[in-house]
TrEMBL record:
This is Cytochrome c domain-containing protein. InterPro entries: Multihaem_cyt_sf. SUPFAM superfamilies: Multiheme cytochromes. It comes from Chondromyces crocatus. PROSITE patterns: PROKAR_LIPOPROTEIN.
Length: 310
């Protein structure tokens, strides 16, 4: 068994051997790594449900996505942003204002944004959710009796991949049954490792060391086509532990991948999605390149849901 498989398999979950994700064809990456780094957080939820925390579901979702990797229930930052009480408390830096109000102000700051970045890193539409809640007087909320339950999902593209068939290309023509575009949303490395599609040979250049799918929104179902970047303006930028950076394009179904032939990749890695001059940045280093293993329809292992556009 290859060294990479021995590293990745402890992180995998068992899926059907028939449920492959994609087979690599072509380099799928800018083969020359650059030396630039990536930073800035994408958060994950704290303990409990939205109902437990006393927050409206939409407010809770924004905080889970952008804040709680540092401001969680056991925060590495000065304060938690988990419960209603956390947000309603008087801020230490300005006791006349709430923690929630100052948090939103920092999200919109260009000089000292939170999460950190070269400018505001929380999209305006998501900041607007928090601003509307503050303007309404910070009413308590609950995502449902006894817990939030599954979040409603939608296939934005209204197009699903059918396994075992050629499938329509979003811009005309067909996509072959097998290729780097197949089975969007599925955990690629897990599927192929379980099904034995990759050889154990360390020289197998077709081995995918990293892969996933970019969607327009946070909660989209498996096999739904993701972002079709016909303009080549969307990139997934991966920076590894040796500060090597790879800029990965999207397939017509939203999939991205890095095959071994494109160059070395040393874990842990950081990632960001760059689109139309905006960025969605993941700050927590990752020990696996199987992105869709955590970025599922509902989110798993601390991820809030799908990898999605900034």
């Amino acid at each position: 068994m290859s060294l990479l498989l021995r590293v990745l398999l402890p992180f995998t979950v068992v899926l059907s051997a028939a449920a492959g994700c994609f087979l690599p064809s072509g380099d799928g990456a800018d083969a020359e790594p650059s030396g630039s780094g990536a930073g800035g957080p994408v958060g994950q939820g704290g303990s409990g449900t939205g109902a437990d925390r006393g927050l409206p579901c939409d407010v809770d979702a924004v905080l889970a996505t952008h804040c709680r990797s540092c401001h969680g229930s056991t925060p590495s930052a000065p304060m938690a942003l988990v419960t209603y009480e956390d947000l309603a408390a008087n801020a230490v830096s300005d006791p006349t204002r709430s923690v929630g109000a100052l948090s939103v102000e920092r999200m919109a700051s260009t000089a000292a944004p939170m999460p950190p970045g070269s400018g505001p890193t929380v999209p305006a539409a998501e900041r607007a959710v928090l601003e509307a809640w503050l303007d309404a007087g910070m009413p308590r909320g609950a995502c449902g009796d006894g817990g939030a339950g599954p979040v409603a999902t939608v296939c934005t593209s209204e197009r699903f991949w059918k396994m075992g068939d050629d499938n329509p290309h979003p811009r005309g023509g067909e996509l072959d049954e097998e290729g780097p575009w197949m089975n969007p949303g599925r955990a690629c490395i897990t599927c192929h490792a379980e099904s034995g599609d990759f050889d154990d040979d360390d020289d197998d250049d077709d081995f995918v060391v990293l892969g996933g799918t970019v969607y327009p929104t946070l909660h989209e179902p498996d096999l739904c086509y993701g972002v079709d970047d016909g303009t080549d303006e969307v990139r997934v930028v991966i920076t590894d532990a040796q500060n090597r950076t790879y800029s990965l394009p999207l397939e017509p179904t939203g999939n991205f991948h890095l095959p071994r032939r494109a160059g070395a990749l040393t874990f842990p890695i950081r990632a960001k999605v760059v689109a139309n001059g905006k960025e969605r940045v993941m700050n927590t280093p990752q020990a696996s390149g199987d992105c869709n293993r955590c970025h599922t329809e509902q989110g798993a292992n601390g991820a809030p849901g799908r990898i999605h556009l900034p």
